[in-house]
Every structure is written in structure tokens, then in C-alpha cells.
């Protein structure tokens, strides 16, 4: 199929935007909006490994949603595939060692998510017999799971008609329903999310809406910049995040590394490294044993 035109709305898109600005989320606009999004999805929807099957595995959905927090889809796909091969269910992830989990997470960044995911797997095993809960209220009890991730897991894994926002959904709604406004809040967007939701098939709808939003951001300047919640990710090169990741890579597969060796290898100012390492100890990534650091086994 031909990609949709870059830098301009197609005929139906332009007509829909005009109608949405005039009428808001009227019944006619909602019907036209759903038809447009589903048409795009039918023609150019993404094939993603966590979407496989008519009823995706809730555990795989949970893993994918945690990985997709602050990480692009293209980076997630290969790491997701390898991760679920190594840890195919909550029981295997819950029983793994911390170094195993962190090693499997390498390349994704924000390593705290890996520890939270393992803690979540242990809760799922202990509290729910290894079955990911369907209720978003219960899902939000899991470490690292906020309202968006809970809503997404409920929708994608269990086909529940939850109302939630993420960056691609936000971009689509801003493009069509708030095209002439700046500083839009999520409180203003959520009623529109609810109005356009296909309650009969929320799983397919959200997949389609996110794919449309991803493509829309390719074709136009990102509409999400007009959201008052839009933030620009901080620079990675030379950041504390980069140093923390480098420390973990030095420790993985070792029996411990002396702090003096870490400082020499990474060429980091002593006080800064001390502060970073203290934070990593507090977060549970590393443990001090004498003058060495190790990754705890559990």
C-alpha cells in the first residue's frame, strides 16, 4: 500500500478535521473518525509480536507495555522477543536472579523498569497464582504500573473498554479536535478519548489509534508539542543514566568489581560516581561488599 501523504491531510482527513473543529466529538464526527482510523489500520497497521493471536497473552502484553515506557517500538521489538523467550511466564521471571534479568534488559535503558517488572511478576505469582489480574485497580498495585499502563494492559490483554492516554493517542486527538489550540491538558483530552472509543472492540481500536498516531507524527510536526504535558527527553550522552548503565555492564558476569576500578574504567569524577553508586545501592541495583560492588543475586 502507498504511504499516506507527508505534510498534509488527505481529503477525508481534511474534511474530518474541519468537522471536528466545528462540531467537536459529535456522533457524525466520531463515526467518521473511527472509519478513518480503521481504514488506516487495515491498510498499514503494524505487525508487533505482543499483538499475536486473537487473545494476546496478558503476561506478554504486560512485558511489552513496561518496555514501551519511554522507549521506541523499534528498539523494543528485538529485546521483547529475546526477553519472553528467556522468561516466558511470570513464574520464570519471578524465579530468575537479578543479574539474569538485568542482562536480558540490556539495550533498553531505564533499568529500574526491569527490577519493577520482576517484582510485579513475583506479586502476580504470590497473590494471583501466576495470572495477570484483569482489574486496572489491581494492576496499579504492581510496581511501576501507573494508570496508563494499567489501562493499556486491561484493554490489550482483556479487551476491556478502558479510557487512557499515551503519546500517540494524544497526538491524534490534538491534530483533529484541538488543531487551533495550545496548552491542552489531558483533562480536556480524556472526554474525547471516551467519546471516540469503540467499546465493542477496544483492543483493536487502541491498536489502530496508536498506529495512526505513530504515522501521523511521521507525516506532520508532532502535535503533542501543543500539550501542556509534553516533555523533551533529557540528553543521554554524559548523563547519570549513561553512567549507571555503564556500571551495570561492568558488573554483569563478574564476581564484583572494585570501586576504584569502576572509576578508572569510566573516568568519572569521584564525588559524582559516589553519588551515583549510592543511588544504585538504594534502588537495589548493586550491593557493596567491602571495596567491591556486586549485583545482588535476588
UniProtKB/TrEMBL annotation:
<keyword id="KW-0227">DNA damage</keyword>
<dbReference type="InterPro" id="IPR011257">
    <property type="entry name" value="DNA_glycosylase"/>
</dbReference>
<dbReference type="GO" id="GO:0032357">
    <property type="term" value="F:oxidized purine DNA binding"/>
</dbReference>
<dbReference type="GO" id="GO:0035485">
    <property type="term" value="F:adenine/guanine mispair binding"/>
</dbReference>
<keyword id="KW-0326">Glycosidase</keyword>
<dbReference type="GO" id="GO:0051536">
    <property type="term" value="F:iron-sulfur cluster binding"/>
</dbReference>
<comment type="similarity">
    <text>Belongs to the Nth/MutY family.</text>
</comment>
<dbReference type="InterPro" id="IPR004036">
    <property type="entry name" value="Endonuclease-III-like_CS2"/>
</dbReference>
<dbReference type="GO" id="GO:0046872">
    <property type="term" value="F:metal ion binding"/>
</dbReference>
<keyword id="KW-0411">Iron-sulfur</keyword>
<dbReference type="GO" id="GO:0034039">
    <property type="term" value="F:8-oxo-7,8-dihydroguanine DNA N-glycosylase activity"/>
</dbReference>
<dbReference type="InterPro" id="IPR044298">
    <property type="entry name" value="MIG/MutY"/>
</dbReference>
<keyword id="KW-0234">DNA repair</keyword>
<feature type="domain" description="HhH-GPD">
    <location>
        <begin position="67"/>
        <end position="215"/>
    </location>
</feature>
<dbReference type="GO" id="GO:0006298">
    <property type="term" value="P:mismatch repair"/>
</dbReference>
<dbReference type="Pfam" id="PF00730">
    <property type="entry name" value="HhH-GPD"/>
</dbReference>
<dbReference type="GO" id="GO:0006284">
    <property type="term" value="P:base-excision repair"/>
</dbReference>
<keyword id="KW-0378">Hydrolase</keyword>
<keyword id="KW-0408">Iron</keyword>
<dbReference type="GO" id="GO:0000701">
    <property type="term" value="F:purine-specific mismatch base pair DNA N-glycosylase activity"/>
</dbReference>
<dbReference type="InterPro" id="IPR023170">
    <property type="entry name" value="HhH_base_excis_C"/>
</dbReference>
<keyword id="KW-0479">Metal-binding</keyword>
<comment type="function">
    <text>Adenine glycosylase active on G-A mispairs. MutY also corrects error-prone DNA synthesis past GO lesions which are due to the oxidatively damaged form of guanine: 7,8-dihydro-8-oxoguanine (8-oxo-dGTP).</text>
</comment>
<dbReference type="InterPro" id="IPR003265">
    <property type="entry name" value="HhH-GPD_domain"/>
</dbReference>
<protein>
    <submittedName>
        <fullName>HhH-GPD family protein</fullName>
    </submittedName>
</protein>
